[in-house]
């Protein structure tokens, strides 16, 4: 009974269970996709990014904290087990460059790179302009009652503007800006892995422009981390303010670029992605 | 003599000479850094990005055109020869995922990934909002007479706003926005490789905030391509309008995100990078 309680304790939050990996030695990790973070087909891209980062965070040779992470979605990740092969391509005095690849059935399904680094005292800007918006307490949490994908239920989202279209009748919303407050559901203290996952939170910009669901999938995401473990710990279970804009949308691909601040006004991450779409 | 003329013809522009690579087979290419694109230490990061992309463009197995490119500057590239090892990690029906690594003396100095793809007719936005700015003809070209690095002389830049500080007395310019018109010098018809190089054109945002030169270096750049060879060909030797903004700047790292349009208003690329700095 005691063992069972301990297991529940250590894997109490679905996010921790989802990113759990087993080190097989030599930088090779194994894991499994999590039904709690299932998307329409395969897992939510953000949970895959978090798994990638978690492999590097767990690597015994790791130096410093995450600075940059690029994850390329080379193929749909199938529900089930996967292997993560990591390699420290270069270790300098204060930075470390990683490459990684997820394989299923011996085939690459994810490729990526990451930069880790030791931060130091320098001249800098403490805070970075954050939009002045309604506080989360004054906004309604988006209902996921009718959501067709499970991973949405793992996030509490309170849209400030540019929320999901209320009808899917094909009207162009005329812009591609979304602002929302977001945190894990149930709440969970923020760390680098969950910040990586949240960096993929923004719904597809094409939905705002078309008010129509079209087949699509992220092909590449890059996240820059502008924070450290201490600031993440201070953020705790608080909300993050996310802002995202699209730039291009044509001939099968669109992009977006976003920022994530904590409630205290610290810019924690900037995130960019390019997405494939049909029709 | 005829051979010599032909050589001059094929390597007439310093950019073409700088990105020339030799395929050794099996996706391994060799090249050399170019004094024409020398930075303070080693080569301009944009020319390295162009060399990486050129290796993939030249690869016999290449499918489609560039969609995304991430280049990680793992170590200072030394002046002299380098080897580029490329690998098609995954080839799908309409997308292809590449990894690459530059080595010098058997050590990784650059790591990266790229996505190529076939574009298709879809619903889309033809044009994307471009800032309304003074035309290049009405702006003075920046003088590089006193420039300490050679690569700047390979680009004609006409700053619209947020130009380089006129004095280096430590004043905070209070913003981190720059807009400029840019093209190769001498002019050269735009292609994917030169667009990749120009994606690194923006001078460090910390210079705007500090009006002071501090030691720094890009650690990672990601470029998304929103265009095709036909649009690049139509752009020809025309100017590109570049806009860039910084978001974060603290404890040793800052970022920026930018866009590049052609004069006809087509958004050709979005570009993001994170930069290490000291002091």
Describe the structure concisely.
2 copies of one chain form a homodimer. The first copy, chain A, is an alpha+beta fold and 279 residues long.
Q: From the helix content, strand content and strand pairing of chain A, which structural class follows?
A: alpha+beta
List the chains of the largest interface with their residue counts: A-B, 57 and 57 residues
- As a whole number of angstroms, the C-alpha radius of gyration of chain A is 19 Å
Binned, the helix content of chain A reads 10-25%
Fraction in beta strands of chain A: 35-45%
Low-confidence stretches of chain A: 1-10
**Secondary-structure element string of chain A:** HHEEHEEEEEEHHEHEEEE
Average pLDDT confidence of chain A is 93
Give me the count of strands of chain A.
13
Quaternary structure:
homodimer
Account of the protein in words:
The structure is a homodimer of 279-residue chains. Chain A is built from six helices and 13 strands. Chain A is an alpha+beta fold. In chain A, strands 1, 2, 3, 4, 5, 6, 7, 8, 9, 10, 11, 12 and 13 form a 13-stranded antiparallel β-sheet that branches. In chain A, helix 3 packs antiparallel against helix 4. The longest helix of chain A is centred in the first third of the chain and has 14 residues. The N and C termini of chain A lie far apart (54 Å). The N terminus of chain A is likely disordered. Chains A and B meet through strand 3, strand 5, strand 6, strand 9 and strand 11 of A and strand 3, strand 5, strand 6, strand 9 and strand 10 of B.
């Amino acid at each position: 009974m005691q063992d069972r309680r301990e297991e529940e304790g250590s894997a109490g939050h679905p996010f921790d269970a989802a990113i759990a990996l087993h080190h097989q030695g030599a930088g090779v990790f194994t894991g499994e996709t999590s039904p709690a973070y299932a998307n329409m087909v395969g897992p939510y891209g953000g949970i895959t990014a978090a798994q990638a980062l978690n492999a590097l965070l767990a690597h015994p040779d790791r130096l410093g904290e995450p600075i940059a992470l690029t994850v390329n979605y080379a193929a749909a990740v199938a529900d089930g087990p996967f292997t993560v092969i990591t390699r420290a391509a270069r270790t300098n005095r204060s930075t470390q460059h990683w490459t990684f690849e997820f394989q299923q059935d011996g085939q690459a399904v994810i490729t990526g790179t990451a930069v880790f680094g030791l931060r130091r005292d320098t001249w800098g800007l403490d805070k970075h302009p954050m939009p002045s918006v309604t506080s989360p307490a004054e906004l309604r949490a988006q209902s996921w009652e009718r959501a067709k994908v499970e991973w949405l239920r793992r996030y509490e989202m309170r849209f400030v503007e540019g929320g999901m279209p209320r009808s899917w009748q094909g009207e162009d919303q005329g812009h591609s800006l979304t602002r929302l407050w977001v945190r894990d559901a149930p709440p969970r203290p923020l760390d680098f892995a969950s910040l990586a996952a949240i960096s993929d939170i923004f719904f597809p910009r094409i939905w705002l422009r078309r008010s129509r669901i079209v087949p699509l999938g992220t092909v590449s995401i890059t996240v820059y981390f502008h924070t450290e473990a201490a600031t993440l710990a201070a953020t705790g279970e608080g909300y993050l303010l996310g802002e995202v804009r699209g730039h291009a949308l044509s001939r099968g691909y669109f992009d977006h670029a976003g920022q994530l601040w904590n409630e205290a006004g610290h810019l924690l991450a900037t995130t960019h992605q390019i997405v494939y779409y049909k029709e």
